[in-house]
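Supplementary Note 3. Input sequence used for the single-chain structure prediction.
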Amino acid sequence: MKDRRYTTEETVARGEALYERDIRSKVEPEHLGRFLVIDIVTGDYSISDNELAAFESAGRRNPNGRFYVKRVGREAVHRIGGARLSAHPSR
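The predicted structure, written as discrete structure tokens, is reproduced below.
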């Protein structure tokens, strides 16, 4: 069987569709904030508190998998930037 390449857009669309259809109800709310790696071809997934560990677990199951990563219950996997919150706005 020929290796199928997926565009970034296809990977995201398939990953999100699998999450919404098959996975969300199984992992929310008890795994909120954990890393979830989905094989977009098989639908298998791995969950871990550590992103690398989730990828390694998924890769052991399917070394040639096509993976999509997400944080359970979050819109983004990582935050870039941000601000320090303080009880005193002048600080």
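The helical segments are 8-27, 51-61. The mean pLDDT is 88.
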